[in-house]
Amino acid sequence: MPQKKIRLPETETGTILYNTDPIIMKWHYEVDYIHSYAQDSPFFTGLSKGKLFGSACTECTTVFSTPRGHCMSCGATTEWFELPLSGKVHTFTTCHFGGQAFLKETPFTLILVEFKGADTLFLSRLIGAEPDLVQIGMTVKAQFLRNSKFLATDVYFVPEHH
Question: Containing domain of residue 72, as a range?
Answer without folding.
Answer: 40-159
